[in-house]
Amino acid sequence: MLSRSSFFFLRHGETDWNREHRAQGQKDVPLNAAGLEQANQASRLVAGLNIGTICTSPLRRAVDTAEILQGTLGCALEVIDELKECSWGVREGQVKEQWFDDWKFGCAVPQGAESYESFLRRALLGLNIALRRPGPVLLVSHGGIYWAVQKYAALGDELDIPNAVPVRHDPPRPDFPWWTATILGAADQAAAS
């Protein structure tokens, strides 16, 4: 079960492999110029938030994004290994084709890869470790980790979250018994200043 506390999630900025629809997995692919700009834009969006801790994946694309946000927020930054992207084994670096769908539906697991279900369990562990930190917590991680957020918060169909777009998540409450996810945008930035 996902810890019931409010948090923010931000997928790392863009990499060249994102643009090429390649499975990055645990390869340490750096941010490209667009990804660095996205991270800087995201830092402006979260500037007025009272973030207690930023928790990030150890992969460089997430750490670099998180460090840009930390420069704006000035809060603690913690690396949590369980927040790294799924390992796709021998398929890392390949374009996501039929093998990817087969992996997600449990039909085949590439050599050296995590199964979809074991990945989601590991991701949930990482999310709950992060949500025990002083909050509100801002998670900087990967699209695959967000699948776990969507599953364990029952947010509906699994969708790919855009790069460097902050999303606020609030747990169920007596007057609204479902998790909610709210994309932060320019209106939020204006309200925070």
Question: What would you say this structure looks like, in words?
Answer:
By secondary structure, the protein is α/β, with parallel strands linked by helices. The chain has a single domain, classed as Phosphoglycerate mutase-like (Rossmann fold, 3-Layer(aba) Sandwich). Helices cover 37% and strands 13% of the residues. It contains 7 helices and 6 strands. The protein has helices at 16-19, 33-46, 60-73, 98-104, 116-130, 143-152, 186-192; strands at 7-11, 53-56, 76-79, 137-141, 167-170, 180-183. A 6-stranded mixed β-sheet has the order 3-2-4-1-5-6. Strand 2 (53-56), helix 3 and strand 3 form a beta-alpha-beta unit. The longest helix has 15 residues, at 116-130. The radius of gyration is 16 Å and the shape is globular.
Whole-number mean pLDDT? 93
Strands side by side in the biggest sheet: 3-2-4-1-5-6
Order of helices and strands: EHHEHEHHEHEEH
Q: Describe the largest sheet.
A: 6 strands, mixed
Question: How many domain units?
Answer: 1
Number of beta strands: 6
CATH superfamily: Phosphoglycerate mutase-like
Coarse morphology: globular
Uncertain segments are 186-193
Q: Remind me, CATH topology? A: Rossmann fold
Oligomeric organization of the protein chains: single chain
CATH C-level category: Alpha Beta
Query: What is the distance, rounded to the nearest whole angstrom, between the alpha carbons of the first and last residues?
Result: 35 Å
For the record, the CATH architecture stands as: 3-Layer(aba) Sandwich
Helix content: 25-40%
Rg to the nearest angstrom? 16 Å
